Structure formats: structure tokens, C-alpha cells
Amino acid sequence: MRPFIEKKDILIGSDPEVFLKTNKDAFISAHIFLGRLVKGTKYSPEETDYGAIQVDGTAIELNTNPTPDPAKFAELVKKGVDDTLARFKEHQLSLSRSSVVKLDEMFMNDRRNKPGLTMGCDPDFNAWMMGVPNPRPDEDIPMRSAGGHLHIGWLKDYYDGAHQDEAMAVVRQLDYALGLWSLFADSEGAERRKLYGKAGAFRLKPYGVEYRVLSNFWMFDDKLCKEAHQRAQTAAWLSLRGISFEEEFGLLAMQAIENGVITPDVVACHNKVTGMIQAAA
């Protein structure tokens, strides 16, 4: 039987990605700096005081240590942003706040860029479709996107065959708490979902789950960082207590995220879910 979990026992970490840009707002791929300004890779991240940093294709990826505290979460994300800015300042590069970058034909065809154009490694899965793998994105699409994935941890000694079902229920809950929220807060979300971030996208982790629906829209704003943490932690806690948004609203979150359309029903659902999260926070 599931041991009782207090909300403070649920830890939230993250691995947001960010693109580099020149002082003329031109995109520049991060992969050319691997081993120079950033030594970390997907398989061997460079450890930092906030977590880790690595080159991930055309982007820089930050990994923040898990924490139960929204303010600490926002502090760690800011440390990662500041660290990245400092590393590239002497090269007159800054961080793009866009989660989508369009690539021209010259960039796509330049063989020197091929290592940076590889997308992803392990597949992610669909919590609305019994955990089936999501299709691998088409690497020939002249666009790349920056994710803002959240890692939700609640497992310690408890681990059995029910973990995947429990984790998928948490992910569907997060689509109501975070996915719907992103429809209102993330202006580039629909464009990014052409590649990544389908409803219910997740990877199972020994400590819980990685929620892979969000872009990085929240990472540059202290208030949004705290809200992302609060929504993730509270929604997961409610799910683990058996309080399910899905039971009341069915497939609405999945359909809204996939369609990217904000209907009156979506507004009403989002408002009610937000109220429940605020009441339980």
C-alpha cells in the first residue's frame, strides 16, 4: 500500500534548454562550443552548484537540483541562467527567450552542423495512450525547440510494478495543471509542439517522472518559475492522494493541448483547476 506522502516530500527539478544569440539577434548553435565553454554532454553533464550544464544539440541545457521549495527552485534556475550568460559574455552572446528557432537551408545543409541537429536520444511516451512511445521528431524539419521539462520526485523506498501506472496518472494530472496553463502563458507553445511537447509526454524515472510537455517559457521569470513549481508539486500531491482532475474533465486537457484551441470549456476547466491548486498550496 502507498505510504502517505506530504506535499513537502515531493521534489521538483528541471532541465530547461536555451538557445544562444548574437548581439544582432542572430541564432548561433551551441554545439560549436562543446568542450570549450561548456564541457558537459548528455551522457556526462558538467556539475555546477545549481545542478549541471551541458550542450544538447543546438541548445544549452541546464539541470537544476530537486527541491520542495518554489523560491529555491526559482533561485536555482536563475543561477543556471546567470552562469550561462557569464560563460558566453566575452563572445558577445546572450540567451534567446524564444523556445523556437527557424533554421535556414544553408545551416541545415552544412555538414559541420550535423552533430548539433540530432534530436533527442531515448524516446518519450504518451500517458494518455497507455505509455506507448511517441514518434521520433523529423530531424529534417528546419526548426528546433527548447524544452522546459520538469522532474517530479516522490519515491524513496517505495517502488513496485504499479509505479508506471501511478506516474502516468500524475502526468495526466500535470496536463491539467501545467499543460493547460501553458496554453495561456506560452505564446510559442503550438509551434514547438510540431516537434516536441505532445500532451502526456513523459519519461519514467526511478524517483518519479519527467514531465516533457512544457517549453522553456517559464525559465526567465521568477514568478513563472515559482508558479511552475507550485503547480507541479501540488497537482502531483493531489494525484497521489487520489484526487484526479481527469475524473471530472475526462480527455479535455489532452484534446486542448493537442489542438491548441482555447474554448470556453478550456477556460472554465483551467480556472477551476487553478483554484483547486491554490486552495491546496
Describe the structure.
With about 280 residues, the protein is α+β, with helices and mostly antiparallel strands. It contains 9 helices and 14 strands. The chain has helices at about 70-90, 105-110, 115, 165-185, 190, 220-240, 245-250, 250-260, 265-280, and strands at about 10-20, 20, 25-30, 45, 50-55, 60-65, 95, 100, 125, 130-135, 145, 150-155, 200-205, 210. The chain has a 9-stranded antiparallel sheet. It has a 3-stranded antiparallel sheet with strand order 3-2-7, with helices on one face. A hairpin with a 2-residue loop joins β5 (about 50-55) and β6 (about 60-65). α1 packs across α6 (about 220-240), α4 crosses α8 (about 250-260) and α4 (about 165-185) packs across α9. The longest helix has 23 residues, at about 165-185. The model has no long low-confidence stretch (mean pLDDT about 90).
Protein topology:
Blueprint: E1 11-18, E2 20-22, E3 27-28, E4 46-47, E5 51-56, E6 59-67, H1 70-88, E7 93-95, E8 100-102, H2 105-109, H3 114-117, E9 125-126, E10 132-133, E11 143-145, E12 148-153, H4 163-185, H5 189-192, E13 201-205, E14 208-211, H6 222-240, H7 245-249, H8 252-259, H9 264-280
Antiparallel strand pairs: 1-6, 1-12, 2-3, 2-7, 4-5, 5-6, 8-11, 9-10, 9-13, 12-14, 13-14
